[in-house]
Amino acid sequence: MIKECPDHGKTEDIMAIDVRFLEWIEKNFPGRDLPAHADEGLHNHGSSTIKHGRGGVLTVDLTNRCNMMCDPCFMDANQVGYVHELTWEDIQEIMDNAMKIKPRRQMSVQFSGGEPTVSPYFLDAVAYARKLGFSSTQAATNGIEFAKNPEFCKQAYEAGLRFVYLQFDGIGNDANNHRQVSNLFDVKLRAINNLHAAGVDIILVVTLVNGVNNDQVGSIVRFAMDNPKKISFIAFQPVSFTGRDEEITPERRLRQRYTLSHLAHDVKQQVGITEPTRDWFPLSLMGAFADFADLAHGPGRDWGQVSCGCHPNCGVGTAMMINKETGDMAPVPEFLNIPGLVADMQQVTDSGRGKWASNAMMGLALLRHFNPSRAPGSMTLADLFKKFDKSFGLTGKNYGEVSGDRSWEDTERRRKDPWNFLFIAGMWFQDLFNYDFRRTEMCIIPYATQIGEISFCAYNTGIGWRNIIENMHKTATVAEWYRENGKHEVYAGGREVEMESTDHSLVIRAEDAERVRERGELPLTASDEERQARKAEREAEKAREIYEEMVLGKKPSKLDLIKIEVLNRRDDKEKEMSATGK
C-alpha cells in the first residue's frame, strides 16, 4: 500500500508477501453483507460509520485499567493519565442499545479493557448479556485472575461466560517474557486448566510481531492439536501499530510488520499442514453459512444467526478436524471442497425452500463435496452431518443448550462430541499506515460505547474515537482515582504472579517449551525505542560537553551536571516502578 499526502509525505507498507494468496482470498470473498439498517442511533460517526453488516462481535470495554503493562498494547492501558470505567448504568444502557436494531442481531458479546476482570461489574455484566439473550458471552483477558482463583472461574461460568479470549503469545515462559511477567506461561496453563474445569471454553489469542514471536505459530498450533478437549479456536492477530506503538519508527515498522499471508505460510512451514492458496479463506465466507442457517431456522426465529461479513483483508481462516480420543486429524478443506460447497449452499439458500427441503439439499451438497479418502481415518459422513447440525442448529436436535439457561449437563453434552473443529483464524486490525475506509465501513467487531457502535479500527487508530470518548466520559484522573480507590495490582518489570498451584493437565511438547529466543540489539518494543532514544540523547550531550571542554575550553556548568544527574535518577525511578509493579 502506497499513500501520498502533501502534508505528511509518502508512506509505504506491506499488505502481503504472496500475491497469489491475496488473489485467492479476494476471489473467494462472497461480497458485502446486507446494508446496516434501523441503526441511526448507533451508527452515525462520519467517515468512520459502519455501513454494512450485522456485526459479529460486540466489544464492550469495561475499564481502561489493567493488571499488566504489555507492549504492544493498542489501547495504551494504564498510561493515558485518566481512568475510564463504565458504571453499572453505562453497561446496561450500552447493552440495551444493542437490542434496538430489528430484527435482533445475535452477536458474541466480548467484555474487554484494559483487563475486564478488574471491573467490579464484570460478573454482573456477563449475567446481564445472557439475560438479554446473547448466546455467546466472552471475556478478552490476560487470564491472571482466572489462574489465581478457580472459584472465580466457577462464578463466571454460572454468570453465563461461555468463552475466554485468552492472551497467549507462545509456548514457554521465554516466549512470553516480552509481556514483563516472569511466569506468564505458567499463568496461561493454570488459567486454561481452571476455566475448562469450570465449564468455560478457551480461545487462544496471539498477537504476532515479526521477529518477536512469529516463530511461535507452529508451537501454538501443535499445542492446540495436542489438547483438543480444551482448545477449539486460535485467533492469530498480526500486530497493529497503534496505542503504545503509534510513534513507531519506519525501520521497526517495516521490520516487524506481519500480514495474513505471513500467517498462512508460517502454518505450512512450521507445522507442515494446509496450503495457503487452497485451505485458507476469508472469514466473510462464513456469511454464506449464516444465510443458509437463517433460511433453515425460518422467519419466526427470535434471533438471526451470527454472521461475519468483514472485508477480505480483515480476516482469514482455516480449520482442522481432530478426533479428541485418537488424535486422527486433517485440514477440513483437504477433504471438503469448500468453494464447491459454498456455491451449492448459496443456490439452496437462494431457492428459498422450507426447512426440511433445504436441509435435505444441504445434505446432498455435503455428500457431493466430501472426499472420505482425505478425511481423518475414523471420520464418517454421519460425523460430518452431526458436526454441521451442531454448529448451526438445523434440525432442532439438542446437542446441549448454549442459551442463558444452560446447565452443567448441557456443557457436558456438548463436550461429548468426539470431534474437535479446531478453527485457526487470522484477524488483522488496521493502523494509520495501512488504513482503508472500505474496511472500516464493513467492520464486524464494533465497540459499544456511550455514543453508539464504532468500528474497531476507527476506535483504536490515531487520535481516534477512543481518545475522544474516554476523555468525554472519563471517570477520574489517575491521581484522583488512586486517592479515592487506591492502586490496583500491576504485574510488570519481570514480577511473578503468585498462584496457589501451577498444576495442570495439558500436554506440552518439551522441545517447544524449552526453546529460547535469540535476541539482538535492535529495539523490539516502543519501550526499547524510548530507552535507546534517551541513551542516545545522554551520549550526545556527554559528547557535546567533552567537545566544548576539550576543544572550546569551556568548563561544564553546575546546571549541566545537575541535569545529567536528574536524568539518571529518572531512569532509576522507572526501574524501581517496574520492579514494584506500581
In words, what does this structure look like?
With 582 residues, the protein is an alpha/beta fold. The chain folds into 2 domains: 2-479, TIM Barrel (Alpha-Beta Barrel); 526-580. The protein is 40% helix and 13% strand. It has helices at residues 19-27, 88-98, 122-132, 144-148, 150-159, 184-198, 217-226, 250-256, 260-271, 286-297, 332-335, 338-351, 355-369, 381-392, 408-415, 437-440, 456-460, 464-472, 478-485, 510-513, 526-550, 558-580; strands spanning 2-5, 9-12, 57-61, 82-83, 108-112, 136-141, 163-167, 201-208, 231-238, 281-282, 315-323, 329-331, 419-427, 447-449, 452-454, 476-477. Strands 3, 5, 6, 7, 8, 9, 10, 11, 12 and 13 form a 10-stranded mixed sheet that branches. It has a two-stranded antiparallel sheet with strand order 1-2. Helix 5 packs across helix 6 (184-198), helix 7 crosses helix 9 and helix 10 (286-297) packs antiparallel against helix 13 (355-369). The longest helix is centred in the C-terminal third of the chain and has 25 residues, at 526-550. The radius of gyration is 25 Å and the shape is globular.
